[in-house]
Each structure stands twice: as structure tokens, then as C-alpha cells.
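Q: Convert this sequence to C-alpha cells.
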Amino acid sequence: MADRRIREFVMNTIDSFAKLQILMLFAERTIRKGSAREIVQRTARDIWSVTEALEDLVAAGILRSQTVDHETIYIYDPSPEQREMIELITKAYNDPLSRDDLYGLIRDLAATSLSQRGYGEALWNIT
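A:
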């Protein structure tokens, strides 16, 4: 993952493993649209982290949402610039060595996010 643009995109948009997994579902065309409940079934993650990740991806402009029969449906709809970056990330994700770099970056971002929220200190204080 030598490309600086990829690193910046990941740092600004895909700062969790839940977001990466959901993005790969959409980018690799496993699904085109789905509710949080449907995505939970495909990712084996909890509804809260999936919903948060989906809403963050909507805020980033990668997904759009619409309500159908009182349920929010998420639709893959990135801009052309985002689509280009997502294609590069998908290539990195599918290459074992590049995937390790991608995972390392996201792991660092997740740890930073936890410590900024004060969770890191709380975890270390559990006895």
C-alpha cells in the first residue's frame, strides 16, 4: 500500500474493520443494496457496529440510504473518484501482502480512535 492517496482515503474513510468488511461486500458486488439486518447476517457482526459503519459510509458519500417500508436500505453509490480509490483498496485487500499492510493501518487507526475516546485507558485499568 505504497500509494499515499490510498493511505489518506483509508485514514479518512475506512478507519475500522467493520467499514472495510462492509465496503468489500459492496465493492466486490457481493451485494448492491441491503438493510443493516441483512448486512449483519453477511458479516457476522453486531447490529450496532454495522449500523454505525453504514451511517459513516453514508456520511462519506460511498453509500446512500433510503427508507423503504420503515426500514433503511443502504445502496452502493460512490463518486467516480471514490470508486477509483475503492478499486485500488479492493486490489490491495485481495493481495495477501498488501492486505497485511491494510490491516495494520486500520488496526493503528482503531487503536488511536479508542484511545482518543478514552477507551484505551479504561481497558488497561480492568483488573
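The radius of gyration is 15 Å.
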